[in-house]
Amino acid sequence: MKPAAFDYARPDNLDEALALLADRGAGARICAGGQSLGAMMNMRLATPDILIDIAGLQELKAIAIMDGVLEVGAAVTQDELWRWPELADRQPLLAQMLPWIGHYQTRQRGTVCGSLAHADPSSELPLALALLAGDVVLRSQRGRRVVGAGDFQTGMMATAVAADEMIVAARFPLAQPGSTSAFHEVAQRHGDFAIVAVAAVGNENGVRLGVGGVADVPGVIDLTWPVADTTLNDFAWALGGADDQHATARYRRQLVRRIGKRVIEEVSDALS
To answer: 134 with 104: CB under 8 angstroms?
Structure first.
């Protein structure tokens, strides 16, 4: 199947992109890498009136450290962030997650912010944003606002971005001294969306655990040492989940228990 007819615009700067958004409203969609949006358009699950291509906007291509956070511009690809020389030191969890996102070819085009905008509950980057309590920076002609991870993803493939707004950057807090992280996921094959993905960040006081692929939005829980198996079991049940063509809810809960215990042990061992 091919997409429905649409207009295409490639603005020269951010102001022009925002003006197009304000003019075309709900009929407009921002396109950076198009790795998810293109497939949805081909299946006619998305039928925008106009695509606004921001991939060439240099002002959105920056990776920067500011005020204790790693800020990633909306035109930065997943591969560009992974190859950024400071990533493993500044935010090792992202360095651990990025090789699991899609495939080599899709990471060349897919953007970090595009994955957040798509808000698939099985995606790794929404899980990273939730676990690290990051922020998303939005712009429109009305102004600028910063939305925390807890308020940004409102449901399955749903976000707090208004029709005339676009994501201009994502912010991930830097790793704190003395902290460590771990990440594992189970998928039908490497590069597919996760059936269950589990990440953890911990220090001597405790561990923060995040799970993707079960609920409509990533689930996060803060735990203190030592972590009891019963606590992990309760968290797995609280996430809910549903049966689908990939796995049953029961299987997903079992994965949360097993992989959750594994990443918690990895964090604990690294801190010992």
So the answer is: no
pLDDT by residue (tens digit) across 116-158?
999 998 999 999 999 999 999 999 999 999 999 999 999 999 9
The sign one gets for the Cα dihedral 41, 46, 52, 55 is negative
Do 187 and 85 belong to one domain?
Answer: no
pLDDT, mean of residues 176-184: 97
Cis geometry, peptide bond prior to residue 226 (ω within 30 degrees of 0): yes
Residue ranges in the chain assigned as alpha helix (H): 14-24, 37-42, 78-82, 87-90, 92-97, 104-109, 112-118, 124-131, 149-152, 229-238, 249-271
User: 106 and 168 share a domain?
Assistant: yes
Our count of domains for the chain comes to: 3
Domain boundary among 120, 152, 173: 173
Is pTM beyond 0.70 here?
yes
From 129, 147, 247, 259, select the one nearest 188 (Cα to Cα): 247
Which residue range(s) make up the domain with 252? 180-271
C-alpha pair distances (Å), 114 with each of 104, 143, 157, 159: 16, 21, 12, 12
